[in-house]
Amino acid sequence: MAPERPIGAGAFPKPVESPAPDTPDPGQLYAALDLGTNSCRMLIAQPKGNQFHVVDSFSKSVQLGAGLEKTGRLSRSSMNRTIAALKVCQQKLKRHQVTRMRLVATEACRRARNARDFIRQVRRDTGLQLEIIQPEEEARLAVISCAPLVSTKTDQLLVVDIGGGSTELVWIDISSVPNRDRPKAIMRLHAGFHPPESPFPAAKVVDWISVPLGVATLRDQFSDVEDDAARYALMSWFFEENLAEFAPYKDEQTREGFQIVGTSGTVTTVAASHLGLRRYDRTKVDGLRMTSDQIETVIARYLELGPAGRRRDPRIGQDRQALIMSGAAILQALLRCWPTDRLSVADRGLREGLLYAQMSADGVLEDGPF
């Protein structure tokens, strides 16, 4: 499947994920659910100023896309696991009396031949109405959720969202924007990735791409390769081959003034390993900056550990050990193309963007971009 380049964008203010201090008014609550190729995740939050407070959350590895690469269909066992997780989400939504929500599905449901049947079964069994969003919107939401991490010294920005079934890359030129306004300029992409002409300096989306290879789909491509190091090398090479048509790939970049913001479980896991955390701590990971050399040191350590060692590593864990090397292969391919001293780790993504989209549309955020 060829990478896609639809058009569109949007932007919102900085998320806050601290729990709400008081029992919230159900009328103020919003929910966002992200059903990906590997995970089902949901946030319930209430607006607070130009940010939000999380009231409840849910995250579960459901492996919806297991076997999809070979059959082109969602398996019965994968659908049953996912529906069981969605029933938990439905109970949380009912308990909090949430009426404003957006529940989306991404690459696995975009690709599966029986996705529509699955969506109907979810509606029948849980009462939840899932919406399959296109790569354009997935990329847009990744950009806006990461906007607060953009440095005022950044001229060229690459936002990377490594998912289970696909990877979105968005290259943005903000060199013409005054330094102090650069994070806000990312938020102002509300008119699309190619908005109408404006008298004000604006962020320019140079190019963007959705590669139909994520941590699960890339792993499945090379599941028949037994040697750990060989499989890793092949995955990284194959992903880089799929970037050949991405326009900025052809231009050599200097490290000065260039920033990558990465949002995914891969990036946060690598960051946790770099920090030596025994227990994951979002406050230490979100916003952390790493160099290419630091990331490559972590990946080399993963290879030294081998499958058994990675399984025992508390920073990786049982659930992620099967996917971490395909994610690392994607990450290292990106760093070969665009080495940087400033890769910012984002523990945020689609759910945060979905929440801000709803809240902004309703006008409940103070000093929002709309």
From TrEMBL:
It comes from the Bacteria. It holds the Pfam family Ppx-GppA. Residues 44-359 form the Ppx/GppA phosphatase N-terminal domain. Signal peptide: none annotated. Residues 1-26 are annotated as: Disordered. InterPro entries: ATPase_NBD, GppA/Ppx_hydrolase, Ppx_GppA_N. GO terms for molecular function: pyrophosphatase activity. This is Ppx/GppA family phosphatase. The lineage of its organism: Bacteria, Pseudomonadati, Pseudomonadota, Alphaproteobacteria, Rhodobacterales.
